[in-house]
Design goal:
The protein has helices spanning about 5-10, 15-30, 30-45, 50-65, 70-85, 90-110, 115-125, 130-140, 145-160, 165-190, 190-215, 225-230, 235-265, 270-305, 310-345, 350-380, 385-410, 410-440. It has two domains: about 15-230, no CATH class; about 245-443, no CATH class. Helix 4 packs parallel to helix 11 (about 190-215) and helix 17 packs antiparallel against helix 18 (about 410-440). The longest helix is centred in the middle third of the chain and has 38 residues, at about 270-305. It is mainly α. The chain is built from 18 helices and no strands.
């Protein structure tokens, strides 16, 4: 091994991984707090309709904005590889391209808002009062769609540049402003649902502005506005193909989780509620895992950019070690404290008893899903989106085959088994493609 390769390998240390990962884990911890405050402040109005309207409106916009989640993942790989290759001009240019996509997408949502709201409320019908209040909420929040989507691009750039402390502060300040204005607008000014929406609008603008400030080094070079470079056809095509693959992969993943909820509904309200309680365990695991998956994304991207295979392997090994630690810890925590967590989240004794029956599946989930979650981060960093799309498609087919075979025979147990099988399928199929990823890195 050459001195250069040895130095590169040594640079991927556990300390470096933790420096990238921990701010993401901490920033994720603020997300459920904001949701609880949103519901809590409108709950002080003493009516059910405002709570339902805020919940419905937030879900609709979260789903619509999620479509642009590819901007975060795609930006990490493209920027990280450019930085690893020492191409500082492209480091700035990729951010501009991502922000232009965010701006165009946000403006399109504003223009199409009547159609979007009509379609969403048709698919999720509610009472006239709830629907009216939800429209009020949506019609206010939609105006910051460009800023909300831009945060995906800004976050991706910061992760790629290993500036995850900036991601933490953006999330913390954005959620903090939102919470404080929730309290002011609803409890003091009595603006109701419109107050919650207005608080979020200001918070999203604040978050985007702060994100731009943390990305200011990208704008210190003239390359961020080098328009011939920005609109280079080959680079735009690469970005479009990458983002399309990520979007298709993510859509299939969302369909799996959505179908899990819908199929669970056929077993009655109690089982549906128990499944919903247990799926929160998975979200907790995902929040904890995100930081180390993000670390894998940026380190692998940098390794691919510099063309160093040993750096790729070392990055995958160190980040996956921490991912495994998190998954084992979560599995053990759920095994030891799962019953207590269930009782904390649900007070209905029937729901508690039913959730305990299916708790072993959630204990197994972190162990069975660890490989898939970490390999996702590794493949995102390598911008091997075609592999991600194709292996997700194969896992998608395996999931539905398991549903068709197991659901009629085992009921809700079959539903849980099918979900876990999809995790294992993703881990195995991506694992089989990993050697090709290493070869991509060169020497």
């Amino acid at each position: 091994m050459t001195d250069t390769a040895a130095q590169a390998k040594a640079a991927v240390s556990h300390r470096r991984v933790l420096k990238i990962a921990l701010p993401i884990v901490l920033s994720n911890a603020t997300v459920p707090i904001l949701g609880a405050v949103d519901v809590g402040v409108v709950g002080q109005m003493g009516e059910a309709a405002p709570i339902g309207a805020v919940g419905l409106g937030a879900i609709i916009l979260s789903t619509v904005y999620w479509i642009f989640g590819f901007l975060r993942m795609g930006t990490v790989g493209l920027v990280g590889q450019a930085d690893g290759a020492g191409d500082s001009a492209e480091v700035s240019a990729w951010l501009t391209r991502a922000l232009l996509v965010a701006g165009a997408g946000g403006l399109a949502l504003i223009v199409l808002q009547p159609l979007i709201f009509w379609g969403a409320l048709t698919l999720a019908p509610a009472s006239d009062e709830v629907e009216s209040l939800a429209r009020t909420y949506l019609s206010i929040r939609i105006w910051t769609a460009p800023a909300a989507i831009a945060v995906y691009a800004l976050t991706g750039w910061l992760v790629a540049m290993e500036k995850t402390a900036g991601v933490f502060w953006v999330q913390l300040v954005m959620n903090g402003v939102n919470i404080l204005l929730d309290l002011l607008f609803v409890l003091v000014f009595d603006w109701g649902v419109a107050g919650v929406a207005s608080a979020t609008v200001i918070a999203e603008l604040t978050g985007a502005g702060l994100g731009l400030w943390f990305c200011r080094s990208a704008f210190s070079r003239p390359d961020w506005r080098d328009w011939p470079r920005i609109f280079d056809r080959a680079k735009l095509i690469r970005m479009a193909l990458l983002n399309t693959d990520i979007l298709l992969r993510s859509a299939m993943l969302m369909i799996i989780f959505s179908s899990f909820v819908f199929l669970g509904a056929r077993f009655g309200d109690v089982t549906l509620a128990a499944n919903e309680v247990l799926i929160q365990f998975m979200y907790i695991t995902a929040y904890a895992m995100d930081g180390f998956a993000f670390a894998a994304e940026t380190l692998i991207a940098r390794a691919i950019g510099r063309g160093d295979r040993s750096y790729v392997r070392r990055s995958a090994l160190v980040t996956s070690t921490w991912g495994l630690v998190i998954c084992v810890s979560m599995g053990l925590a759920f095994a030891l404290s799962g019953g207590w967590i269930i009782d904390l989240m649900a007070k209905d004794t029937d729901v508690q008893d039913t959730a305990r029956v299916f708790l072993p599946y959630m204990v197994a989930a972190p162990f069975l899903g660890c490989a898939a979650w970490m390999l996702d981060g590794i493949f995102i960093g390598a911008t091997r989106s075609r592999d991600m799309r194709n292996m997700m498609a194969l896992s998608f087919v395996i999931y539905w085959a398991a549903i068709l075979i197991l659901l009629p025979v085992l009921g809700n147990h079959g539903l849980w088994l099918a979900l876990l099988i999809s995790f294992v399928a993703r881990g195995i199929t991506l694992g089989l493609r990993y050697p090709a990823l290493e070869r991509q890195a060169g020497n």
